[in-house]
């Protein structure tokens, strides 16, 4: 995977906000710990996010432990309870819910443990130290523009949403609709959530196709759902009739674009996001305090025209 524009963006950001700081923490480095709390590990994209964050934390000299919330807010709260009780020095956090996760982050803050959100945001300005987020809205504006061209401005389509409590779900949906809704001959015949889950998306797509036999395309809020929708389309013998669009830049979806299975996706950069979050946490522990509330990371539209530049390395 090539890191072009986003890599440049993060280098520029690091030049602006990364400053040397004296270590004000009296603990021995070998005793310091970072927790990596992830919404779910039942998705390869989030596995990369989690493992990259933990790897960078260990490179910086910390013990790092990954906690899987399994898309369950109660389990996420249990993880925060444990992390607070065990006295971790920082939390690298991928929330399950934009509103529901706020209390957990505030509890950690009250306990003196800073939280750094990765990829997903929480709806609070004063809880996390900072939030490193892909530019989901703009990415789906680009995807929407490509979608319109591929559809020749007309046809019936389906939208499969991610988790309804996740801001990424709505930022992507809103970015897409900000373009597509300007074309009245493009008609959304169904919109349903599949919780960012591949198997759920396959089931949802199967049900929708039964009720709506005339479908020309499906826009999915992430690549796991796009691959699930593609499986349903393929099983129905409609792979040559229904175009599938995704979001994430996961390896199987990028390969799918190259193979003509997926019409397009939008590539995020979880390795860069997670590693940079670990570095910011390290800076905080060593005394730095002037962090931006949010740091957007550029994303890239992947289509058959440019996919060869972004194919996964074997």
What does this 3D model show about the protein?
Helix content is 42%, strand content 18%. α2 packs parallel to α10, α3 packs parallel to α4 and α7 packs across α8. It has 314 residues and is an alpha/beta fold. The N and C termini lie close together (10 Å). The strands form 3 sheets. Strands 2-1-3-4-5-11 form a 6-stranded parallel beta sheet, with helices on both faces. Strands 7-6-8-9 form a 4-stranded parallel beta sheet, sandwiched between helices. Strands 10-12 form a two-stranded antiparallel ribbon. It is built from 10 helices and 12 strands. α6 links the parallel β6 and β7.
Please give the number of β-strands: 12
Largest sheet, order of strands side by side? 2-1-3-4-5-11
Helical amount: 40-55%
Percentage of residues in DSSP E strands: 15-25%
Principal-axis shape equals: elongated
Radius of gyration: 20 Å
| Mean pLDDT across residues | 91
Q: Uncertain spans, ≥5 residues at pLDDT below 50? A: 1-29
Describe the sheet with the most strands.
6 strands, parallel
Features:
alpha/beta; 10 helices; elongated
